[in-house]
Design brief:
alpha+beta; two-stranded antiparallel ribbon; 9 helices; 8 strands
């Protein structure tokens, strides 16, 4: 279990962190028993990082669309996106539309994504020639999601949060059902694709309940099927939230 300070403590030492150690250990034991490659990273409510193989680098898939959203909103600065821009950004995030992701990537390029990754504290992020070739670790994504609000321009922060809270039902196969049932507002993005190992299935999230907030990233590869990878995500969520 990795445990290192990432930010100044948000709560006093007397306040229990969420998720607590028992739940984090349960997630670790569960993932160690799954097939393929699994990593997870959590930045808890005390702003401390925990995980299993959190620095292992994976192919990114559609998870990077959340980064494309923020990179583009930073590019346009203080103005709100136009109706035409919302017509691209919305489906890119909520329905994971690849063609629209490519259209946004052409406007941002590798440089904007790399600068965003640096500001987020992502130390293993790389991208070249295509958004779908981005690489990162679970720790990278936990750091990005933790800082999601701060990285998004104030004018468009509510819009960006709305998109990550509005993923279409057919793509809510991971954390959200368990998190929402436990009272956590959930801002998330998933990704999936074939790889040389089998099936890759990822999900990353920012979770908020009252004044509590934490981030979570689960990255998997070598799954025998998409369903198996999605079940892994649900297994993690069940141990964190139920």
């Amino acid at each position: 279990m990795v445990g290192l300070a990432v930010l100044a403590p948000a709560v006093s030492a007397a306040t229990p962190a969420v998720p607590d150690a028992r739940r984090l250990q349960s997630v670790r034991r569960y993932l160690e028993g799954r097939r393929g490659l699994e990593s997870y990273a959590v930045i808890d409510t005390a702003r401390r990082l925990h995980g299993l193989a959190p620095r292992r680098v994976y192919m990114g898939a559609s998870v990077v669309k959340a980064m494309l959203l923020v990179a583009y909103l930073r590019k346009i600065g203080a103005r709100a996106p136009s109706a035409a821009e919302r017509g691209i950004l919305g489906p890119m995030v909520s329905a994971s539309d690849n063609a629209r992701a490519t259209a946004i990537y052409r406007r941002t390029g590798d440089g904007a994504l790399r600068r965003l990754a640096k500001r987020a504290g992502m130390t293993r992020f790389s991208v070249a020639a295509s958004w779908s070739y981005a690489r990162f670790s679970a720790e990278d994504q936990a750091r990005f999601m933790w800082r999601f609000d701060r990285l998004t321009p104030t004018r468009n922060r509510s819009y960006a949060r709305h998109l990550l809270a509005s993923i279409v039902p057919s793509q809510r196969w991971g954390f959200s059902r368990f998190a929402l049932a436990a009272g956590w507002q959930t801002f998330f993005k998933g990704g999936w694709r074939r790889t040389g190992r089998g099936r890759l299935v990822h999900e990353v999230a920012l979770l908020e309940r009252g004044r509590q907030r934490f981030s979570l990233a689960v990255l998997t590869d070598g799954n025998p099927s998409m369903g198996y990878g999605a079940a892994t995500l649900r297994g993690v969520a069940a141990r964190l939230f139920e």
